[in-house]
């Protein structure tokens, strides 16, 4: 009878596998004469243990594989300082630096895409600055035109209103005989 290496098989696993014991009766006949029968009954315990042992072995193998490969992958694929530094400078607005590190083909495609992105960002930054300067000069020109319009068109009207106000004030102070 096989036994599991890590204690007994858990009940939840036995319920999940759900092997039903089977009982068979085999009659014994010899020379056309019938004797007793033999009862054959399956014991699912061995099936549970066998499947549990295979599952345990697979999980242990997977855990060992992961515990060895994950640190190896992290060690091999650590960030390259020559690639990380230019990326940090791009965040600060310096798009002139490029990544020139020789690397594996998969990462070289990433490097060239990163360098193309930096060139596009530099172009967009230049366009943004140019458009911002145009916007500021347009605002200044509109302000000066508005000031000129106010000075040239509204100022004479304000002056005339002020003169009329003064004359109306004088006219009120005069007597009725002096008005005509």
Question: In summary, what is this structure?
Answer:
66% of the residues lie in helices and 9% in strands.
Indicate how many domains the architecture comprises: 2
SSE order, one letter for each helix or strand: HEEHHH
**What class do helices, strands and sheet pairing give?**
mainly alpha
Given as residue ranges, the uncertain stretches (5+ residues, pLDDT < 50) are none
What shape does the CA trace take? Answer: elongated
Give a short account of the largest sheet.
Answer: 2 strands, antiparallel
Q: Order of strands in the sheet with the most strands?
A: 1-2
| Helix content estimate | 55-70%
Q: Total strand count, please? A: 2
> Residue-averaged pLDDT, rounded?
81
Rounded to an integer, what's the Rg over CA atoms? 48 Å
- Quote the beta fraction: 5-15%
What's the tally of helices? 4
Distance between the termini: 138 Å
How would you characterize the overall build of this protein?
By secondary structure, the chain is mainly α. The protein folds into two domains: 1-78, no CATH class; 79-148. Helix content is 66%, strand content 9%. It has helices at 11-17, 45-76, 81-91, 105-173; strands spanning 23-30, 33-41. Strands 1-2 form a two-stranded antiparallel sheet. Strand 1 and strand 2 (33-41) form a beta hairpin. The radius of gyration is 48 Å and the shape is elongated. The protein starts with 10 loop residues before the first helix and ends in a 7-residue tail after the last helix. The model has no long low-confidence stretch (mean pLDDT 81).
């Amino acid at each position: 009878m096989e036994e599991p290496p890590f204690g007994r098989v858990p009940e939840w696993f036995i319920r999940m596998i759900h092997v039903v014991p089977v009982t068979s009766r085999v009659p014994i006949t010899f020379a056309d004469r019938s004797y007793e029968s033999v009862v054959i009954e399956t014991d699912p315990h061995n099936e549970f243990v066998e499947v549990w042992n295979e599952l345990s072995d697979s999980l242990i193998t997977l855990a060992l594989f992961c515990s060895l490969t994950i640190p190896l992958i992290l060690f091999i694929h650590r960030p390259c300082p020559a690639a990380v530094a230019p990326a940090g400078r791009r965040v600060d607005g310096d798009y002139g630096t490029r990544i020139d590190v020789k690397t594996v083909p998969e990462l070289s495609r990433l490097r060239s895409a990163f360098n193309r992105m930096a060139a596009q960002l530099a172009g967009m930054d230049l366009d943004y600055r140019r458009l911002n300067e145009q916007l500021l000069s347009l605002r200044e020109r509109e302000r000066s035109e508005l000031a000129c319009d106010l000075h040239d068109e509204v100022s004479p009207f304000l002056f005339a209103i002020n003169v009329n106000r003064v004359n109306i004030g004088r006219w009120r102070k005069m007597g009725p005989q002096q008005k005509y």
